[in-house]
Design a protein that fits this description.
Blueprint lengths: L1 E3 L1 E4 L2 E8 L33 E4 L7 H11 L6 E4 L4 H10 L2 E4 L11 E5 L2 E5 L1
Parallel strand pairs: 3-4, 4-5, 5-6
Antiparallel strand pairs: 1-8, 2-6, 3-7, 7-8
Helix pairs in contact: 1-2
């Protein structure tokens, strides 16, 4: 299946999806040293975002989240790409300064954890 999306930070990547139906905040909720979600009660608690296509509805939290994304990238623990329904400034800036492919305006209900994803331009190819 091919989905169209709006490009925030262009790139061409392939990887496995990690999907959350809940918003994600990077500052204080994802360990920048390990890439593991540490937010108590979050559906992805205990899972690593490293080298995944991270899929979620929107971001949340502090503007320091952009810098946390940058730290994840510098530590080799960042997601390969981010797909979300609605971008907001914190996640968009984080993706841009960290050189993480990011798209939004996409129906994330069509993607499940562990789906094989290829992103190229504004196209998202989903292989279950």
């Amino acid at each position: 299946m091919i989905l169209k999306a709006r490009v925030i930070k262009e790139g061409h990547v392939r990887g496995k999806a990690l999907v959350s139906k809940e918003p994600i905040g990077f500052y204080g909720n994802i360990d920048p040293e390990t890439g593991v979600v540490i937010e108590k009660g979050h559906p992805l608690e205990g899972k690593s975002v490293a080298n995944k296509i991270l899929v979620f509805p929107t971001g949340k939290g502090s503007t320091v989240g952009s810098y946390t994304m940058y730290r994840l990238k510098k530590n080799g623990k960042a997601p390969l790409a981010i797909l979300c329904e609605e971008s907001e400034a914190i996640i968009a800036v984080g993706a841009i300064i960290s050189n993480i492919t990011m798209l939004d305006k996409i129906d994330i209900s069509k993607i499940k954890t562990d789906d094989d994803i290829e992103i190229k331009g504004d196209e998202v190819r989903v292989n279950e």
